[in-house]
Amino acid sequence: MQLISVISLVATVANAVSLQVGTPATAPDTLACTYLVNFADGVDTLSSIESHFAQFPDVTYSIRTHVSNQYANFASFQIHGTCYESQVSSIASSISYSTVRSRKAPKPIKFGALTSRDSTVYSEDIHSITGVNEVREKYGAFGRGIQAAIVDTGIYYLHPALGGGFGPGFKVAGGYDLVGDNYYSGNTTTVPDPDPFDNCSAESHGTHVAGIIAGNATDITVPGFVPAVQFTGVAPQATLYAYRIFGCDADSTGTDVIAAGLYLAAGDGADVINLSVGGGPTFAEDPDQIAAATISAAGHLLFQAAGNDGGSGPYSVGSTSPGSFAVASFDNVEIPSDASLILDGAAYPITFSISNSIFTDGETFDILVNDIMANDTQSLTDGCSLASINNSTSTVGKALVFRYGSGCGTSKRCGNAAAVGATACIIYNLLPTGMTGNVLIPGFEITTEAAAVILSDAKADITPSAVFSSASSSVFISTAGTVSAFSSVGLSPDLLLKPDVGGIGGQVYSTISPHAAESQGLSIPYAIYSGTSMATPYTLGVAALILELRGSIGFEGVRAFLKNNAQQTKIYGTDLINSPAVQGAGLVNAYTAVTANTLVLPSSISLNDTANIKNSYTITIYNNYAVDVVYSLSVNNAATANPYIHGDDFTQDYYSTTYTDDSHPTIQFSASTVAIPAKASADITVSFTPPTPTYDDLYPIYGGYINVANNQDNITASVPFAGVAGSWADKSIFSVDSASLYANFGELAADYTPYGIFGVVPNSVSTGLYADVTFTPLVVNQTVDVSSGAAILAPIAATTRKAQIILNYLGNDGVFIDAGFSSNSAIVDVLYYSPSAGTFYEGGPFTGEWQRNAFSDDQSIVAPYIFVFEGNAWDINNNLWGLNPIFVPNGLYNIQFWATKNFGDPNNPDNYQVTTSPQFLIVGGATPITTTSPTSSYSTSTVGTTSHPTTSVEVGTTAEVSTTEDIGTTSDIATESLTATTKASATASLGSSTATSGTSVTTSGSGSTATSGGTSTTSSGSTVTSGSAGTGTTSSLSIATSGSGTYTAPTVGSTTGYIATYSAPNAGSASTSSSGSSATYAAPTAVTSTTTTIPVNLYNGAQSAVGVAFGLIVAAVFMI
């Protein structure tokens, strides 16, 4: 019944530690010290939190949001200043808690301005390819009696097309503002109120969504609100409720706020709920995704935008919850236009430059294509430098045409055009991106079709007739009814078949607020936007029609009628049926969805990968006809998506992903025909044999549609299926070998290099630490001066539940511990350079869920960041928020890049892929804190002789890494607290001791004995516990304390290939250690001690204790 009811829980009692759910607090997009806590039914959440924090008088916090209804009982809050996760996990009567993540606001793609006309044009062509017009004509359905909730930026409900008011009796009948006007990424304090009014956001996103669902812009005479074209939403008689989760800036919100909006909408009785929020691929384990599953299971249908990251290629879909409809976008039929480019007599729509759009009607253009081969070569830098400008002829007075690419923005391209005397700047691109342009020159973006005409003429040495027209017209869209280029592509990171279905989202005309119109330079509050944010309310509107005519049939019923009856479409310009990973079940068809008498469940089949595919699947065919029906089954194989290239581990993008008519599965039915009595059902068993790819590293996405035809009418039900050929768990997460990434990103890194050192192209873009900020490859035993910074690249090819960069101290002494760390491993602190923003950000600890990268920045998915390591690291065993990183001491180190494998459990160290750098020597770091100078002879080390910047291994595959399996296995650690000794002072000097690998340690002086693998009791009563030690690798933990902090006792084993001199932390006689089975070292001083109870850190991640190379022990005080 509550949010947490959809996941498995252990019983909890007051004051017990509650379960942590979802992303760890250190994930890159989490809000600092911000948590959502779930409580049992009937618990007063605010009182419980208040009572809890009364125990911590120095802690200040503020409530963000809270919900208590039949679906959830939770509150979220932000702790101000230093915070610890233990302060959250111990709240009485709490069931579980989650960190709060930031979700980006959706960013629609905007098109040209339209003016109000004295026109009676009434265009419903948008509804002609989705069956909506037929449903209206034959059944008179307009969404009457359906309650639709919009969780978004709020609504400008004074718009006459949206009813002109707010409250009972109006079209917008209710809702709530969960955040207030001033909420944005820089101010996450919420100020809720009962009014979801929005006349301050620049795009008026929620108002545009509202118009698509239920707008009625017919016969409007109110001055300033007369549309260019009259239109209606899909379900104009539906009642709207608005739940505002963005402030006026509308740049981001929190997963707690989204969850609250969803629960409030469900609690208010919404039949259908729209959520168009960005964010890119993720896992369905955060509060908003759990909320989606909860309310859907209760019958409230949630529609979520799949995302606008189609430019990034496969695995970019953002809505992955099984409990929601992830909606893809299809292009509209036509759009009204006040501006077009007339090429050889045909009109093509244009998108004006935001900076300069001054053209006159009838103006002619002398077209000059800057690089006629730019589209063929997929150039990213066409026009990005003056040197690249076409100099074959005079550019003065020309309209220069450029291909857009990530090498630079439209401002730079158009600025270069102005600099060479051009009079117009024209941009084309396969993806509609919108255009900033440059104030120095007027410009516009043209469609793919217009670009094809211009390029064809240019290659034939023909100058096309090109004229600007401001005449009002309706422009046909040649890609109508096919998937929009920007629409995000599946599958989900766990290979769930997403998106589910598609609606019209490419170039949709709808309502916006007067403020948004003014901010965009529009004369009337209507705009043409594109995005899955538009396709989602369109699809929701179709669901409203289904509910109106069929009544309450539950989530799975509506999903099946939508998906069984969707239209399978082809890839534009080909005869190939598009992949279900791209279009889901296809484009919605309202008419067949409300008239079909056959239902097939499940409505889609996720086949996973070859290693995990089931032996067979069962589909159930329901016959709702009044007569017996004979059904026949067949298969339509869809195009196979090829997101990888042999020998290249990085995910390809929109341009480089190929779709081919091969790699199809073999499919067998238990029966290809079946007779089903009236009002009865029958089961059919389906077996799939996946295709075998040519190479193991290709991972093609295959798929298609099971068609179920009947002998009564021509309505065929279909079920999409998709899977991956190969073992997805073996797919590399961090990219270490990608020529495509180097070509599409690495060669541009010269413009991105930090510290103002421009013009440097890296020799490699492989995951790893580089010797400096100019990307000098790191070799064994190289010196890295952290005072000057060193570049780190960590391009991620596949979204992972957890990734982290670990710094391992390799010195056989206590220097790292004395610097303030609890073990010899720490989480790297990074600055990161954002190419798109052109600036540095404090990245903090690199740990948590990480989203896959792309060649260049998309709407949510981004190009690899360039990280800079400046010698700071975070203690691996502490809650990281509210603390500060520690400046590491000089010494010998390596860096490891840990990433959870696909399907992996981030709490299991065996489920990680690890990439390890060569060992290197840090200089410019902190001076080691020790009473005797360290004398380790690093230069003679021969460990890690590989010449490649990094080597990849999987946890458990080598003796070096496999020692992490022993973490947490001793009885000391596998408890809720650890008792260790705390040294009160250091006065007496002990003598030297001799250690023989795997046997014993005997100290002289004041007299104490330690046996490796047992306990050592000193004369003053201190105890050091160490696990068993073996020759060559020491697979245990040593735990002790020094001063007020935690101290890791070194255990000496065979260290073949490593030669060093070791100094005791608290002085004593000089000592040396040598390669082999024995060594001497100065024993630490032991005097009067006290016993301290050290709480176990519940931080997720046994993988944190790494770097047990060369037979050294790395102790970690935490639980898995």
Automatic annotation (TrEMBL):
Q: Which GO terms describe its cellular component?
A: extracellular space; membrane
Chain intervals with Low complexity compositional bias = 932-952
Q: Which GO terms describe its biological process?
A: proteolysis
Where in this protein does the record put region Disordered?
932-973, 985-1035
- Taking every annotated instance into account, which residue ranges of this chain make up the domain C5a peptidase/Subtilisin-like protease SBT2-like Fn3-like? 605-721
Comp. bias intervals (Polar residues): 953-973
Q: Which residues form the Peptidase S8/S53 domain?
A: 143-569
- Active site residues per record: D152 (charge relay system), H205 (charge relay system), S533 (charge relay system)
| This protein's record includes keyword Hydrolase | yes
Give UniProt keywords alphabetically.
Hydrolase, Protease, Serine protease, Signal
Give the range the annotation lists for the signal sequence. 1-16
Which InterPro entries does the entry link to? Answer: C5a/SBT2-like_Fn3, Peptidase_S8/S53_dom, Peptidase_S8/S53_dom_sf, Peptidase_S8_Asp-AS, Peptidase_S8_His-AS, Peptidase_S8_subtilisin-like, Peptidase_S8_subtilisin-rel
Q: Which GO terms describe its molecular function?
A: serine-type endopeptidase activity
Question: Could you name the domain of life of the organism this protein comes from?
Answer: Eukaryota
Q: Which family does it belong to?
A: Belongs to the peptidase S8 family.
Looking up PANTHER family in the UniProt record yields: PEPTIDASE S8 (PTHR43806), SERIN ENDOPEPTIDASE (PTHR43806:SF66)
What name does this protein carry? Answer: Uncharacterized protein
Q: Which organism is it from?
A: Physocladia obscura
